[in-house]
Amino acid sequence: MLCARVWRALSPLGRGAHLSAWRQTLNYSSAARLDLSGIYPPIGTPFTDKEDVDYQKLEENLQKYAQIPFKGLVVQGSNGEYPYLTEEERVEVVRTVRRSLPAGKLLMAGSGCESTRATVQLTEKMAAAGADAVLVVTPCFYKGKMDSRALIQHFTKVADCSPVPVVLYSVPANTGLELPLDATVELAQHPNIFGLKDSGGDITRIGLIVHKTKTQDFQVLAGSAGFLMAAYCVGAVGGVCALANILGRELCELERLCVSGHWEEARVLQQRLIEPNATVTRKLGVPALKQAMEWFGFHGGACRSPLQPLTEAETQQLRRDFSSNGWL
């Protein structure tokens, strides 16, 4: 049985209540839809010197994020180094965030794995740990076989079984695979697939997805701060932006300007965010994101091996890209 496209737009529920409340809505369509609109930082995972997850530093970061008007947090996305964490660590990080997250904030947890079976199982565990929705990345190890037929079957099975809403995740820079347009449009019809995080940066594609799914109550999130304003222009409802880990208030201000139609002010702010965003994403990646977090008062620290720290030259480049735009 497919789940009805319903989810209570309420403050987060407790672990057991999450599953039972969702199951109670399976045959009803009167509850409010899950509204994804807003800005989310895909939070980093701090580690100790021995590369264990540092839950104390994580909680200290969460306390600071609670002061910023985010819609919620994305936990165990690409910037959380999820491929390097065990399943147990991934679930425990979500559980830790759930305990600290203020009422009314959305928790979206990455539950994607390479096999459909593993993704279904981890999705159920993330829901039990307190996730309000799951972010499911495209499986990619056998990318040559991940055509529309395979991906539709995969995401449909996950959504059929998921006790919480599913958000598709296309991040071709990391997976080498873009979720095909035809697959996205078909999957948007599933009552338990609520949206897409698109990190590819192709604005025409984002606009076309919005256009082709406009009758489906399907929501698109920009996957990077570098094209956030452009994504709003073509119908996106928000963004999951690595840069929000560092310049969270500024990203929320850009959202406000776009939503309220103050496009000239939005353009000026967007332009100042392009270079810093590129440096902590496609240029230098997670090590740069974590280094910049340290400069701005958050716990970033080292990545888990084999990711390496920045070189001195890379650190200088990172500082230039922030300082030349007035952020340092």
UniProtKB/TrEMBL annotation:
<dbReference type="Pfam" id="PF00701">
    <property type="entry name" value="DHDPS"/>
</dbReference>
<protein>
    <recommendedName>
        <fullName>4-hydroxy-2-oxoglutarate aldolase, mitochondrial</fullName>
        <ecNumber>4.1.3.16</ecNumber>
    </recommendedName>
</protein>
<dbReference type="GO" id="GO:0008700">
    <property type="term" value="F:(R,S)-4-hydroxy-2-oxoglutarate aldolase activity"/>
</dbReference>
<dbReference type="InterPro" id="IPR002220">
    <property type="entry name" value="DapA-like"/>
</dbReference>
<comment type="similarity">
    <text>Belongs to the DapA family.</text>
</comment>
<feature type="binding site">
    <location>
        <position position="240"/>
    </location>
    <ligand>
        <name>pyruvate</name>
    </ligand>
</feature>
<feature type="active site" description="Proton donor/acceptor">
    <location>
        <position position="169"/>
    </location>
</feature>
<comment type="subunit">
    <text>Homotetramer.</text>
</comment>
<dbReference type="GO" id="GO:0005739">
    <property type="term" value="C:mitochondrion"/>
</dbReference>
<dbReference type="InterPro" id="IPR020625">
    <property type="entry name" value="Schiff_base-form_aldolases_AS"/>
</dbReference>
<dbReference type="GO" id="GO:0009436">
    <property type="term" value="P:glyoxylate catabolic process"/>
</dbReference>
<dbReference type="InterPro" id="IPR013785">
    <property type="entry name" value="Aldolase_TIM"/>
</dbReference>
<keyword id="KW-0704">Schiff base</keyword>
<keyword id="KW-0456">Lyase</keyword>
<dbReference type="GO" id="GO:0008840">
    <property type="term" value="F:4-hydroxy-tetrahydrodipicolinate synthase activity"/>
</dbReference>
<feature type="active site" description="Schiff-base intermediate with substrate">
    <location>
        <position position="197"/>
    </location>
</feature>
<comment type="function">
    <text>Catalyzes the final step in the metabolic pathway of hydroxyproline.</text>
</comment>
